[in-house]
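Encode chain A's predicted structure.
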Amino acid sequence: MNAQQSAVVDEGRTIDPGLFRTILGHYPTGVVAVTAIGDNGAPVGMAVGSFTSVSLDPPLVAFLPDRSSSTFPKIRAAQRFCANVLASGQQNVCRSMSRKGTDKFADVDWTATPSGMPRILGSLAWIDCEIDAVHDAGDHYIVVGRVEHLELDTPESPLIFFQGGYGGFSADEAKA
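Encoded structure for chain A:
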């Protein structure tokens, strides 16, 4: 895409989905593995780049799964989830959580959070939540989680998704 390309909303309110994705791909996002325990007692998980804090009082976070996700219904049924903030060296975990139709936890080490959700070892932090609300949002849902437990495990570089690729983050200035 060159600097001259742009998306214009016409009277029919259409924007080319490919161009929309390309332009928003210039905004870096952290990568989180959202995990839960399925009805059969096995861990389930998905990688998301749409995770955010929502409120401090009460403590709420949100993630935005695609409506076509085969994993989100399992997480929704559990009524709980753990958001695992992936480290820059956990691209393999991201790939595992992005696979379809396989045991996503075959090569992923985890332990249980206080509520029993899968906490992925080596993640920077984990946030254990109860689902507070699920809202329709176009081709996605907005899932709001009420935070019950959280912990910082490894304060290092997060996994970042940017322009279709993965990498880490390096601060130019020292922390204040």
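The longest strand covers residues 125-137.
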